[in-house]
Structures are given as C-alpha cells and as structure tokens.
C-alpha cells in the first residue's frame, strides 16, 4: 500500500437526485437478480460518521501532500455506524450480501454487526490484535494499536497472548507492508464467484486492494457498480457509475428493495462460567467473546453482589467461598468502557452446575436501553430481559 495522493485532489462530482434515482432502479434490479453479491468499501462509507477520508479535497493524505495539518479525526470508538454500514448489515442478515471487502480500519463494519467470517479487512482493524506465535486474535473496545517506537513496522502493542504468552501485534497494514493473506485470499475468492460487485466510497487507487473489484469488472457476465464522488481508474469497467455519497445511494437502494435500515445497536456477547473446586468452593469467570469465539475486551470491571472486591483486570475471576445449590442466583454488576455512555448493567446468573451461561447484551445508544438475552447451550432456550437506563 503506497501513499501517492496528489497535492490537488481529484475533483468531486455529484449527480442530481433524479439521475441517481434512475441508477438506483437498475442497481436494485441487479441486486435482486444476483446470486453472489459482494461489496467493496472505502473511507467514503465512514465520512458521515465524522471520520475523514484520505484522498478527497480535505482528505488526510491530500492535506499531507500539501504540507498542511491533517483533519482532526473523530474518535472511532464513539462514532455511530452510518446508514450505509447498517444497510450492509441488513443485507448480510437476509443472505443477500455474500461477502464484504473493506479498506477501512476504523472498526465500524464489525461494530455495526458484520460477522467476522463475512468480512475481509484488507488494511486491518484498529480494535483487533493477534499473537505473532499462535495467531490467536483479540478484539478490544479500545485502540489496540502499537506506538511504533521502533518504526512503522514495529507492530507490538505491549500486551501478551493469554493462550501462549506470545507477543501481541496490531493488525494495521502500514505503507509498503503485505496485506493479510487470509483477508486478501477471501477477497479474491469471492470476486471470482461474484456476479455483482458494488464499490462504495473508494477511489480504487490503492493496490493490490483495487484489483478485487477489477476482477469482477473484467469477468464476462458479471456486473460492477461504483459509487464514489471522484473518478476511479477502473470506471470504464463498470456497468453503473454513480457520483453520490454512499449514504444517499444506500438509503435509496434499500427503499427500492423494500428493506429497512436497522438502527445501530451495540451488541456484546458474555460468557459466565462457574467451576466447582475443592471444599465446595466455586470459581466464577466472566469473559467477553465474539460470535466466532474470539476474546473481546469491552468491560472495565465486574463485581459480584455480596463481595467487596471489584475485579478490574482480565480474566475477570471471582472466588465464591460458600456452597452453591442449583438455582442459586449470582448477581453480577458489569462496568463497560462507556464509549457510547453505556451505564453499568446487572445480570443475574442462575447457577445450574458447571454449565456456561451465554448472555447477549444489546445497548441502544439513542435511548439508553439495555436488552439482555441469556442462552444456555444445552437447551438453546433464550430468556429476554429489558432494562431501561437513562443516558448519563
């Protein structure tokens, strides 16, 4: 990946809404007919969330080329995923979107609800780090990025792997570094199978990432649609060229498909494990996990009712020095990182032996309401509890 942004940015173009409407009709029809629809995103899908792009007139790389101070970057941990992000989540959940390839490292696609197996993050994720020895991944609710004390290629974050003790590295791809093989290969494979590719908010000037939509554009029988305010090097390969903001396009596309754009809900998965030890004592472990089992850090502390001790470091382990009978209730007070002003949440874990309890925690930043779901793996039953908490 090379920063070759010119001092004078490519001119931006905006087509009239009437023109965009006509192209949306065609794109919606193509999406309905497609069997393997993929989307390729760039910085343009996040600009309405307050995160600047790179090659626009006020883009960070454009300003750098001009010797000017870069645009103040919004806190990506507090940014709300855009209508484009949420539209893609809905298309994923309905089985319409088969794979998402992204050049963005702001973490918004994953936070919006895109599943880990459904996305290729070609340039990394500022919230994801991995072990250089065993490749174990960790998702964090903080910027898991190296300070690069020894240069741009020093990716050490200063933390150690909980599984093997190896050094953890950030996943950001800096200039002149290779793209992650897993993500790049998944991108290539899905491009080979795709009969429709939509590019959203990318200038398509960064190699080798731009080769993925190019595969679709060159393939017989496949269609390529590009939505970007600036021209791209492969415009001549596309069937539909839309000069529009990503949100404008996606809101109209979802309307034509008669599909809703869901609101952003912050979703967390929590596992509570109670292990019986000697003398009928118990060890309670609270762990954040992703849908694929990857450890996720999103808590600041955990406290068990009746205990003075507040556990503030992972793993969150609490020792219960009394006998627990089946049906006993463990009330856990959870403190979150609070990027979206999430207040503390109490969950009540019913003890039923050495069985894990999986909790789905959903927080709506618009109204401050928590919804919690407990799913026990042995029964697949779900208990739903709604907790309304006023925003701070």
Core attributes:
21 strands; histone deacetylase activity, NAD-dependent; NAD+ binding; metal ion binding; NAD; alpha/beta; six-stranded parallel sheet; 7 helices; protein acetyllysine N-acetyltransferase; six-stranded antiparallel sheet; 392 residues
What does this structure look like?
With 392 residues, this protein is of the alpha/beta class. The chain is built from 7 helices and 21 strands. The chain has helices at residues 17-33, 60-65, 83-93, 108-112, 181-193, 211-218, 246-256; strands at residues 37-41, 97-102, 119-121, 128-131, 137-140, 156-160, 167-170, 196-200, 223-227, 240-242, 266-276, 282-289, 296-297, 299-304, 310-311, 316-320, 329-336, 345-350, 357-364, 369-375, 382-388. The strands form 4 sheets. A 6-stranded parallel beta sheet has the order 3-2-1-8-9-10, with helices on both faces. A 6-stranded antiparallel beta sheet has the order 16-12-11-19-20-21, with no helix packed on it. The chain has a 5-stranded mixed beta sheet with strand order 6-7-4-5-13, with no helix packed on it. Strand 17 (329-336) and strand 18 (345-350) form a beta hairpin. It is elongated, with a radius of gyration of 23 Å. The chain starts with 16 loop residues before the first helix and ends with a strand.
